[in-house]
Amino acid sequence: MSKGSISPKSIKRSTLVGMIVCAGFAVLLVRLLAIQIFQFDKYQEKVLSQITTETPIPAERGNIYDRNGNPLATSIQTYRVFISPSGIKSAADEDGKDYSALVAKGLSEILNVDYDGVIEQIEKFSNKLDRTIKKEVDKETAQTVREYIAEHSLETMIYLEAQDTRFYPGGDLASHIVGFTSGDGIGLYGLEYQYEDYLGGVDGYYVTARDSHGKEMPFSYSSIIEAIDGYNLHTTIDISIQSYLEEQLEATVNKHKAANRACGIVMEVKTGAILGMATSSPFDLNDPWTLDTLSQALLDNSGYISGSEEYSNYQLKLLTEMWSNKAVTESYIPGSTFKIITSSMAYEEVREQMPSSVTCNGYMIVSGQKIHCHETEGHGTISFEKGLQRSCNVWFMTLGKLLKADTFNSYVSDFGYKEKTGIDLPGEASGIFASEMTELDLAIYAFGQNFNVTPIQQITAVSAVANGGNLVKPYIVDKISDDQGNVIYRHETEIKRQVVSQKVCEEISDILEKGVSEGEGAKNAGVKGYKIAAKTGTAEKKETGHSSVTLSEYRNLPLADAKKLIEEQGLRCTVVGNTSADAKVVGQIPAANTRMVQENGTVVIYTEAVNAAMVQVPHLEGKGIDEAKRLLAAVGLNFTIDGTRIHSEIIDQSLTPGTYVEKGSVCKLTFDEGYVCSTVAYAPADNPEIAIIIIVDEPTEGLLYGSTVAAPYVSAALKNILPYLGYKPSTDN
């Protein structure tokens, strides 16, 4: 091979290298094409996600108004002041200036925050772009912050973000209806919760490109997604009527010392519009996490140590009860106000069979049991009209017998008691009725005892009698609008069904009106110059929440069989003696046929003739039910309950404190009896437009009747409401 010639081997090698290089460039080219063309969107999104930040633009929450346009809930603009520790560090690195001290000094002085706290935020989170220093800063203070930023060129270090803070102009007015929001502006209770999807709107955001230090990039990339503001609610509530109602609830609670609060509703009988709805005591919507005076006193006197788990749990329980809208979320025994409903059923179905009069001797025997009238000496021989006006239980047991269970149950359903009303408020409770009605149940149900309804169910049912027989759906929100005033929803009156005839309604209303104007049982609900139809009610509360059982005879049974029977009753078993399955039971504590509360209930079984285990009886008088249960369970004693006000203090115990009794013995705990006093009325009686109900749960002072605890306050409320609505008094009434 001559000098300078290229060998075939070298040519092959060069060719191979060239091919490899070309292949590499080809792969690179394909990859670049894929990135630049085919996968451009994907990689652009990745890059932008690393160099862009989103600043939220909060939607303005919608307002809530009463029916006259008065604001019940609105939003005021405040500001969140936050810093960029990363921006502060970057600026300091560039020019060596101590921006940390400058930022901390200015913000601590303007916002009244801790200087060292700001320094800690800067140093501890030096790589972060956003650390909140203070929320809910007012406009004037925010402007001072802006001026400080401009004066010291701190634009990349201190920021302000506009925020909406919920404000309730009425404070505690209509608090249980309106509800409140969380710190993040989300509805938690009442209308704020029920209509969150309408009120809340949709937040927008502002996208900007920033470098790793939080500075805006030198090229332009930004995008604004506008926020969609929330809609406004226009309610049926009238703040004047609401105020009148709340005043009367507070008056009766203060005078009669209601242990379990009071509630009231004012409703248009023909449309279902709620003009007022209140529960005592109202709470400050601008500070909903602070207990009212009564609740705070209960917490202070609870004996729990502040900061303990028991203290916190009890505090939360009291807050939840304070927020609860009793008119919707709780049920009660209606008592004699239900006689309006029974009367309407009877006039519609069995009027021809009704006797002209009934003789009341103070009781009636039903299924072998003596059921008393509230007038224990008896009303004597009276007509139905007087029976309704004087609230004679014997008359209504007679009506129940004539109606029969099927017809009675059918009307109970038709009047809406076996379904929720569907009112547009959260947490509506249901009525409580026996699944099967005996002859005895029917007799007692007929005069309004032994079952539960909600206040909103009761006023809705009574409104059906007032308006001529139509069951209407109650409601709070009349319309929903946007910021331009465009109505996107308007409520239309919803009549569910015709329950009874107009003729029956007029006749019952006339009897009720005469019961007021002629000085019968509901006379205290009257208002001079107006025709008022009214009925009072006084119901004895039943103790609920503690299921009781009656013990069987376990002696002479094999231990295994006895234990099985005990466990089937939801009780526990303690064995003294031989524990083998076939051991014979020779004794038991408590004895057979003893009635005891199921909760923590323990039966002591003896399989040998040994001395009974003895325990010392704790002192329980003056203690609450929870503490009593704990003390009794600790020593192995059972209990039963006498009385209905079980959330009050124990006033007596059947086992003497300090003495020794057989383990498993039953201690009877005695509480005061509890009553629910109520009055329902509608006016004007000859052409009803509005109905009102006031319910006082467990009053403890004064004469405890619906005619004394509720009726005078219904009268006082109507005395203001009727003239306010334009009804003029007549000298004939």
Structural commentary:
The chain is of the alpha+beta class. The chain is built from 23 helices and 31 strands. The strands form ten sheets. Strands 2, 3, 4, 5, 8, 16 and 17 form a seven-stranded mixed β-sheet that branches. The chain has a five-stranded antiparallel β-sheet with strand order 10-9-31-30-19, with helices on both faces. Strand 30 and strand 31 form a beta hairpin. The longest helix is centred in the N-terminal third of the chain and has 31 residues. It is globular and about 125 Å long.
Secondary structure elements and pairings:
Blueprint: H1 8-38, H2 40-51, E1 52-57, E2 64-65, E3 71-83, H3 85-95, H4 99-111, H5 115-124, E4 131-137, H6 139-152, E5 158-167, H7 175-178, H8 190-194, H9 196-199, E6 204-209, E7 222-225, E8 232-235, H10 239-256, E9 262-268, E10 274-279, H11 293-300, H12 309-323, H13 326-329, H14 339-349, E11 358-360, E12 363-366, E13 369-372, E14 380-382, H15 384-389, H16 393-414, H17 439-445, H18 455-466, E15 470-472, E16 477-481, E17 487-490, E18 495-498, H19 502-517, E19 533-540, E20 548-550, H20 559-568, E21 572-576, E22 587-589, E23 595-597, E24 602-606, E25 614-616, H21 625-635, E26 638-642, E27 652-653, E28 660-662, E29 666-670, E30 675-683, E31 690-697, H22 706-709, H23 711-724
Parallel strand pairs: 2-8, 21-24, 26-29
Antiparallel strand pairs: 1-6, 2-3, 3-4, 3-5, 6-7, 8-16, 9-10, 9-31, 11-14, 12-13, 15-18, 16-17, 19-30, 20-23, 22-24, 25-28, 27-29, 30-31
Helix pairs in contact: 1-2, 4-5, 4-6, 10-23, 11-12, 14-16, 14-19, 16-17
